[in-house]
Amino acid sequence: MRPAFREEELSVLGHYTHVIPVREGVPKLASPITTRENTLLMMNGEKPYWYPMVGMIGGDYRPLRPRMFPDLLVAHDAMDGEPPMDFASLPPVQTGWFDTKWRYVNTVGGPMIEPGSQKIDDMNDWQKLTWPDLDDYDWEGSAERNHDYINCGLPVEFCIPTGYWERLMSILEVDLAAVALVDEDQKGAVHAFFDKLTDLYEDYLERVRKYYHAELILMHDDWGHQRSQFFSNETHREMILPYFSRFVRKAHELGMRFELHCCGKAEGLTEHMIEAGVDLWCPQPMNDIRGLAERYRDSGLTFGVTVPIVAPGMPGEEELAEKTAREFAETWGTLPVAYVNYGGSELLYKYMYKYSRIALA
Fold first, then answer.
1. Taking the C-alpha atoms of 148, 68, 255 and 198 in order, what is their torsion angle to the nearest 10 degrees?
2. Among positive and negative, which fits the CA dihedral 293, 340, 85, 114?
3. Long-range interactions of 79-85: CB distance < 8 A, separation 24+
4. What is the domain-level CATH number for residue 272?
5. pLDDT, tens digit, for every residue of 258-313?
6. Number of domains composing the chain
7. 141 domain-assigned
8. Residue 106 is assigned to a structural domain of this protein
9. Cross-strand pairs, 79
10. Whole-prediction pTM value?
């Protein structure tokens, strides 16, 4: 039986290091189990002791995105234990995997394919693409450089920033990629490409597990836009789900848990996520997150819910932090949720801990 919450648990015993060296990480509280143990309960589909803090910049797990991988560098998304990077000094256009040219767009905080740079415009030509060779990377050196960063007491989550649909878009552009999924003259080539891509990703994952001892894997694959999905459920089941599911199974076979980063209105594909074995998804608010959490509460899928911004030092920080945490726990109760917190308030972290410990007791 779980112990009831005690105020003494809010004692701060120290902090986990932050991915940004000049900031403190989340506090180590006097909790009955460790933050790592609690996070892995959630990722295993079990009820945690408190709602974990999740999201792209981490919290109750450590995001690992080594800069030696081009697709992470072009997205200005390198998060590792090496000295801080001056992304502004990088060339505006850089080359990622498959010899794709990416331009980082400051106004949207992400990269896009440089217009007119795609190598092919029909997937029947996919064998002309330049494939990455994983032997080219200094895996041992990278693991050594990141030793302290990943041995921080939190579960390590490695990131693959370009999944199946996004990879197809980056090769063909979005309109041609959408056509390729339904064009009978290209579908066979798409299947062949995704099959080989899965071979690559499985090899990638085995090395990530071996060298970084990562326990979590995050894949980005945005299946929706603001109002709907990019494709029908039938097309997704035929063209993407078999390869996506195979990759998730590989992660589980390696003892890892799987987070899907999937932007847009993708709620119609939730059952596909569950079928594939996804353990965590942080939907954007155009999805009916409450309805999804209720409908699929026993599926093993946890939903990450973004909370209002509460920043350190803002006026009324403590009152707002307590109100936000109390209302969150009252709203979500024992539903399978974690929370995404972009404000960085330690007071909010502690109140979220308190009220969720009470709700989940």
1. 180
2. positive
3. 79/19, 79/159, 80/142, 80/145, 80/146, 80/149, 81/145, 81/146, 81/147, 81/148, 81/149, 81/150, 82/145, 82/146, 84/20, 84/21
4. 3.20.20.210
5. 999 999 999 999 999 999 999 999 999 999 999 999 999 999 999 999 999 999 99
6. 1
7. yes
8. no
9. 65
10. 0.96
